[in-house]
Amino acid sequence: MTRNVRTEEMELRDRLAAGESPVGSWVSLGSPAAAEVVGGLDFDFVVVDTEHTPLSIESAGELVRAVDAAGDTDTVVRVPENDPTQVKRALDLGASGVMAPKVESVEAAESLVDAASYPPEGSRGVAGSRANGYGAHTEAYVESANDAVAVLPQIETAAGVDNAEAIARVDGVDTLFVGPADLSANLGCFGEYEDATFREAFDRVLAAAEAAGVPVGTLATGPTEIDAWHRRGVDYLIAGTDIGYLRQGARSTREHYESLFGE
After folding, report:
1. Which pairs count as long-range contacts for 237-241, CB under 8 Å and 24+ apart, including other chains?
2. Can you give the pTM of this predicted structure?
3. ∠ at Cα 249 (244, 251), nearest 5°?
4. Which of 57, 87, 111, 209 would suit a FRET pair with 177, their CA atoms being 20 to 30 Å apart?
């Protein structure tokens, strides 16, 4: 039996609901080895990004397997768009959750939850897949998946900010996840996270989520951003990316070498 059939081991949704601060990581290089390394470092979850990468569904499946093989880390697949077919295929890989970009309305959030849920709560189709042991444990998986799969809509536009509280109140939404780069770009202040317009929008999302009783997370790319988002009041973070780890580690090593040997 594969690990992902046992949905009681999918802990991310429970941790979010309990008000804990799970720490995540991000993989987008497409390397199963990199995903396996990150999966073995005691992160609570790893996001496999299929929006801004050339990853096929088969490649995403290899990364999910790699994370699962490394330990007890949950996997979340970020789909390219909030599309029922994309959501279904991501969860059939055995992912513990699904993240969708640019959710801007109640209707979009309801569509995401619907696609991630089996009937009668939703319309997710049933078939033999990795998630249910390739059909060996379909009934058990269908009975438990709706209570185990985490749903993470991303707030990345001014419209999403305006509707953040209503989105957070949609039954089945477990958290609001702010995409800082896209949100700042949409607001006309790309990458300027201290800009007054961005700060006001981010604070509105925090307040909306608190009113709805759901946590807020975002992405940090290094220690400085971890500190900044913590001060801002987020509930949890994705605390780095495989690309960032590689770049930062390589740069740090080269700079140390040059400090000793010269250029």
Report:
1. 237/21, 237/23, 237/24, 238/23, 238/24, 238/25, 238/26, 238/47, 239/23, 239/24, 239/25, 239/43, 240/25, 240/26, 241/25, 241/26, 241/27, 241/28
2. 0.94
3. 95
4. 57
Q: Which domains does the chain have, with CATH numbers?
A: 3-261 (3.20.20.60)
Tens-level pLDDT at each residue, the chain (263 residues): 344 454 556 799 999 999 999 999 999 999 999 999 999 999 999 999 999 999 999 999 999 999 999 999 999 999 999 999 999 999 999 999 999 999 999 999 999 999 999 999 999 999 999 999 999 999 999 999 999 999 999 999 999 999 999 999 999 999 999 999 999 999 999 999 999 999 999 999 999 999 999 999 999 999 999 999 999 999 999 999 999 999 999 999 999 999 999 86
Q: Which of 85, 99, 73 is nearest to 127 (CA)?
A: 85
CA distance 11 to 199: 31
30 φ/ψ sector (left φ>0, alpha ψ -120 to 50, else beta) = left
Distance (Å, rounded) from C-alpha 72 to C-alpha 96?
A: 11
